[in-house]
Amino acid sequence: MAGVILRDVRKIYPSGFEAIKGIGLEVGDGQFCVLVGPSGCGKSTLLRMVAGLETISGGEIDIGGRIVNQIEPAERDIAMVFQNYALYPHMSVYNNMAYGLRNRGMAKPEIDTRVQEAARILEIGPMLDRKPGQLSGGQRQRVAMGRAIVRQPKVFLFDEPLSNLDAKLRIAMRVEIRKLQRRLNTTSIYVTHDQLEAMTLADILVVMNGGQVEQIGNPLEIYQKP
Ligand code: ADP
Ligand code: ADP
């Protein structure tokens, strides 16, 4: 496990646009942090910087005592779940989950143990031989989660993972994600524009606006203020 600390983090895109204007934030070991705010406020940019997918223009991001820019991509112990799931359409569910582990040269029995365990937790055991195209939206979302879980990362990053699901499924999955995170106790940063989702999931809620933090605290503090 590892906490995540942001120190005066800034992002200026090559266009000159300042998307993140100096954000400081501390997410403790095993905490679930939700970034919420209107479209365009910089949530995705911030998450991508933590993931090492976007360069950092100023400040630094510390994951478990190591500075993100200085960690080799292969050593970044992070798993990200995307809005569009980003599954490989021609691969079975099993292989979608196993792929990243094989690439790291993990031994087959260990891969199998991890995939089977993730499939059991996520209740997709019977679907391991199917292709993503043969699954419902909710099942695909589970596979995307499974692919993150099997890596046993120090940090989970979620970029609006439920926004492609219908309202009913979104609520069910949000409860499941919370349960899963409690069980695995993995430090998580979760981006959403849905306030209800943010309130349900967050230990720490970060309300962003215009590339800055507007409010930060636990959900009750933030939403029960007069
Ligand atoms: P959010 O995830 O909160 O919707 P983003 O992080 O995607 O916001 O975007 C924050 C701001 O940065 C937006 O105004 C967006 O238009 C701008 N932006 C995002 N990507 C780029 C880019 N590659 N070049 C220039 N501006 C960008
Ligand atoms: P491909 O579809 O790319 O030909 P396979 O389906 O043959 O790949 O599987 C590749 C590897 O993953 C094989 O070594 C196989 O043992 C393992 N595998 C695939 N599906 C399962 C499964 N449901 N349970 C256990 N191992 C599986």
UniProtKB/TrEMBL annotation:
UniProt record, GO biological process: carbohydrate transport; glycerol-3-phosphate transmembrane transport; glycerophosphodiester transmembrane transport
Membrane topology (UniProt): Peripheral membrane protein
Superkingdom per UniProt: Bacteria
GO molecular function: ABC-type transporter activity; ATP binding; ATP hydrolysis activity
Cellular component annotations (GO), alphabetically ordered: ATP-binding cassette (ABC) transporter complex, substrate-binding subunit-containing
The ABC transporter domain, residue ranges: 4-226
Record key words, sorted: ATP-binding, Cell inner membrane, Cell membrane, Membrane, Nucleotide-binding, Sugar transport, Translocase, Transport
Compartment list: Cell inner membrane
Family of this protein: Belongs to the ABC transporter superfamily.
Function: Involved in beta-(1-->2)glucan export. Transmembrane domains (TMD) form a pore in the inner membrane and the ATP-binding domain (NBD) is responsible for energy generation.
Protein name: Carbohydrate ABC transporter ATP-binding protein, CUT1 family
Species assigned in the record: Bradyrhizobium lablabi
Residue range from the parent sequence: 1 to 226 of 361
